[in-house]
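Both lines are retained for reference:
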Amino acid sequence: MQTMKLSSIFKADLETLLLVFFNIIRDGNDFLVEGQVKKSKYATIELNDDLVKEISEKVTGYYKIPFQAKGRKYVCKVENDLKFSTDQVISKLRSLIMVKIAEIIDIGILDRKMALALFILRGSVDFTRNYMAVDVKRNIENELYIDSLFNILVSSNELIKYLNLNFREVQPEFKSKKRNTQLRLNLRWVYENILNEIGSIHPYKYDIISSNKVRIGDLPKTDTMYTTFIQRLIYYQRNVLKKELSNIEVENIRHELFSVSENDQKIQRSKKILLVIKDTTEDICTACSKKYKIADRSFITSREKRYYFEYHHVISFANDRELLDVPDNLVKLCPTCHCALKKGRAKGNFQKKLIKNILDNRGDVLDFSKSYLNTQSLKDTVDGIQKKLR
């Protein structure tokens, strides 16, 4: 099998970096980027070994990394010449992608590149629900990967409005089938925006979609899917990812997810709170602004032409969902500081230093934290916040 060195992957263009990030899995000491062609009753052409080989060659030509057909799969082996851990690979891919995203002027092109890389290798078509779906790879799925996936997807423009996250871990059959989390993209968006690109790479998938135009539904009529997707992704990170859920916990999550009126109210409230912080606080990292310039820690987004920030609940939101989702508990952080303030991600003393910087920069957050934690001194407040990190 032909291989490509990891160090060469890191020098690739944005299309290739996205394809690798969305489809990479660990394989012993090395990695694989793999796709699979599944037979569909909606296809008008025959699926055979020659067609899979053709698809493998077209993917190789388009993304400039060597794929080889193996049965119904096509695989690119990535030699780990840098001896990187999985987390190191994820972090490096994320940083390279973010830098290249910032360089794109035409944000419509970015949407198409991102969608194609996300769904071309493994995406399957579902005409009954009007989406194209792809599983998040289980053996690389972790908090860092989901966090990185979130940051890459929210850098898109229109695409994010038509994405949906399916928590298959809370479906009744999960325990017997162990289904992966699933990303879904509205099929009408696929048809109108990337069908030609699909045709140049994947003739079988192109045939399925183009031959069944009458089955494809419409685009959503509102932008609410944007906030719904983001809220579901955050909820998934905090409540579902890598957790051994009891039957009662699964039922509680299902009730919370599918209780439409209550959930909509929470989404709208959270959206308003985020917008308050976004537009009324300075565009600086609240934790490291006295040491670093934001230009050295973040990038200007192609969509809004503002520096990119992640929003952080100072006292972790998971401790109290009703009282902690308030403006006085929310701050802007650069991606590095936000990552460091995850439980167990950095040394305790370093986390406390970042927390102290936040409280020094935001007096309202300090006052809120003291009140919530019932502390008097700054030290006790910092200690209390650090202990509640999630």
